[in-house]
Amino acid sequence: MTMLTSVLPSLDGMIPNLTWFTIIQAVAILVLGVFLLGGIFRLFFGKGSSLNRAVSASLSIFLVYLAAILIYLFMPELRESLEPLPFIKIDLQHVCLIDWIHLEGTTLYPSVLKLAILALIVNLMEEFMPEGSKIFSWYLWRTVTVLASLTAYAILCAVIKSFAPQIFGGWAEYILWGFVLLIVLTGILKILLGLVLTVINPIIGGLYALFFTNLFGKQFSKSILTTLLVMVLFKCAYHTGMQQFSFSEFSIAAYGPSCIIILIVLYLFGKIL
Predict the structure, then answer these.
(1) Angle at 164 between CA 7 and CA 149, to 5 degrees
(2) pTM value > 0.85
(3) Fewer Cβ atoms within 10 Å of its own Cβ: the N or the C terminal residue of the chain?
(4) Which residues pair with residue 96 across a beta bridge?
(5) Do 138 and 131 form a contact (C-beta atoms < 8 A)?
(6) What span, in angstroms and rounded, lies between the C-alpha atoms of 236 and 262?
(7) Please, which pLDDT band fits residue 156 given cuts at 50, 70 and 90?
């Protein structure tokens, strides 16, 4: 699985590889930062708010990335089926993070759109998948959620590429900005004009109900925050030195603890925040 190979130069020898301990340390810092953000949202918006569910989805997305790395490394028969994930490049030797700040628009917007699609899928999965009453069943369903999200992402991207490739091309920028502006403007107009606007213009009222009160529609709004948060976390990871690590360093000594840290924080997130 490769991503952005046409615009990304070879990084071999340019960036020092990380040790397994450095990887675990960086993952722990980033995940705890997400937990702190969830604590702030818990303070202002209450337990289990839509904002915190969007933040929780960002942790699940990191598990999706870790699952993709594991599949690529140990299941070569599935490599061709894996859809490249945004802002990461995987080959047989390395995993490289891509600094999205420096990407050109023709590459950036399709990648952001793919990440938004993944965020939407993960939010939908977390909303409608069973949570599990016991800790074992909880972790079992989280595993199902991650694998189902990765599968749905690959299938949806393949369908889009087959029937409407422009969506991941020149249309991506307009789709992203149009969708964000539609949600933001709908929310602002509804707040400013209240129930009067709903009576005068039921279209605005209907859009507001879709994006802010409808159970399914709310996932679109939540996915915006999830996408932005994941992009910020990628940027932070890049600047903490996690630009690249080799598979020789990314052994079970780093992979196992990284997954465990994220799963523990994700569990506490759901129980506390």
Answers:
(1) 75
(2) no
(3) N
(4) 89, 244
(5) yes
(6) 16
(7) very high
The strand ranges marked E within the chain are: 88-90, 94-97, 244-246
Phi and psi at residue 91, to the nearest 5° = -135, -170
Nearest to 80 by CA among 66, 90, 88: 90
In the chain, the amino acid numbered 269 is F
User: How many Å apart are CA 124 and CA 253, to the nearest integer?
Assistant: 32
Read off the pLDDT of residues 214-267 as tens digits, 9 standing for 90 and up: 666 677 778 888 999 999 888 888 877 677 766 655 555 666 777 777 878 877
Cα–Cα–Cα angle for 172, 175, 178, rounded to 5 degrees = 145
Pairwise CA distance, residues 79 & 62, whole Å: 19
Torsion angle, alpha carbons of 208, 212, 218, 222, to 10: 120
Q: How far apart are CA 263 and CA 273, in angstroms?
A: 15
Only one residue has tokens 């939407």, namely: 120
Rounded to a whole number of angstroms, the CA Rg of the chain reads: 19
